[in-house]
Amino acid sequence: MHRPGDTVAAILERLISFDTTSHKTNIALILYVEDYLRGLGVASFLVPTADGQKASLFATIGPPDVPGIALSGHTDVVPVDGQAWDTDPFTLIKRDGRYFGRGTSDMKGFLACVLAAVPRFKAANLKKPVHIAFSYDEEIGCIGVRPMIAEMGTKLPLPRVVIVGEPTDMRVVDAHKGPVRWQIDVAGLAAHSSMAHLGVNAITYAGFIIGELTRIESELAAGVPDTRFEPPFPTLQVTTIEGGTASNIVPVSCRFGFEIRSMPGLDIGAIETRLQRFIATQCLPAMRARAPGAGIALTRKNYVPPFSAGDGSEAVELALALAGQNETFAVSYATEAGLFQDAGAASVVCGPGNIAQAHTANEWIAAAELDKCMTFMDRLADWCAA
User: Are 22 and 28 in contact (CB under 8 A)?
Assistant: First the structure.
């Protein structure tokens, strides 16, 4: 067990040692953080899952009745399965000015900086509080932060500003895309393949729908570009598909998933309505003429809102001042910032590490990035004390 006030590297070593892959528990890490904060006189509020296998953590340093600045990060990491690592992914290794390990860049490096800065926050006479907001299951759709956000304004204070520490090379990001994911289930009618006219081929009708999605994809790509993003338009992809049982049976079922990486301002509801109309007019009548029980179900599985801080954002102005910069950026990956912003907290994304290292074998973060983040934290302490 490390002592409260340990260095960034010592805390990062401990955080990396917890295998918090999204399909596993994060409780051991959360209890470590809770104990670390308790040692510094900081109480934590946990928001656990119903089965107690995961939890988010929220803590406040400074006056609890004043709107404060939240430092937000997720504790989960993506799997290492199938990746060729040179070292144990859950043992921190330092080499050539870099720290290697799963989650170093995305985003336990930021979590370590936040925790290492707590003694600095405690020593400052904060007029505005600093909140710590650590979540789970960000990597599978920003799931774990939602129950914690739901408590804000009641059991938890609603932050004035949220700084989400995803890896941006400590650049200030004021906009990002957001993934929307659907599942389509097609139910047809089985028949012997020699009597195909008696059946309803679920894969065929899935293909018709995929054709319409391809047309929508082309229209999105042909729209007015926003060159702050790469690519400069929303993208649409069919991501999974399965169906059929044997080569001599007309497929009775087919299921596929698709995703849109939405940009701020895109009307997702209109796209969903268009697809429902296509299904209702171009697929179901022909299917049900042969099989009254045939059907197609379109289900939205997850929605992470795209993020735009907007003009005059206090969060952006603060992050620029703390980072010592005067330029903002947009990225194509998603974060929890849009969820905080939708809840009423001005948000911004700024954290150590490079997204190109995230999710890769031999993931790493430069020691210099952690140093830059600690300078950011020092300036935040001064700002909150002013």
Answer: no
Task: Read off φ and ψ for residue 133, nearest 5 degrees.
Answer: -130, 100
Here the tokens at position 298 are 């379109």
What residues does each domain of the chain span? 8-176+306-385, 178-303
Please say whether the beta carbons of 237 and 187 come within 8 A.
no
Copy the structure tokens of residue 156.
């938890």
Q: How far is CA 229 from CA 234, 290, 378, in A?
A: 9, 47, 31
* pTM reported for the whole predicted model: 0.93
- Identify the CATH class of 178-303: alpha beta
Helices (H) and strands (E) in the chain, counts: 10, 16
Q: What is the mean pLDDT of residues 237-252?
A: 97
Helix-strand-coil split of the chain, %, nearest 5: 35, 25, 40
Question: Distance between CA atoms of 180 and 261, rounded to whole angstroms?
Answer: 6
Among 308, 374, 368, smallest CA distance to 335 is for 308
Separation of alpha carbons 113 and 321, rounded Å: 18
Helix H segments across 1-67?
8-17, 27-39
List, as one string, the DSSP characters of 306-321: -EE--TT-HHHHHHHH
In this prediction, residue 1 has a pLDDT band, given cuts at 50, 70 and 90, of: very low
- C-alpha of 205 from chain center: 33
CATH 2.30.30.520 describes domain 8-176+306-385: no
Beta strands, E only, the chain: 44-48, 55-61, 69-74, 93-95, 98-100, 130-135, 161-164, 172-176, 178-187, 235-243, 253-262, 295-303, 307-308, 328-331, 346-349, 364-366
β-strand pairing of 172-176 with 253-262: unpaired
256 burial class (0-12, 13-18, 19+ CB within 10 angstroms)? buried
Is the pLDDT score of 56 beyond 50? yes
313 Cβ neighbours under 8 A, 6+ residues apart = 174, 346, 348
Side chain identity, residue 203: I
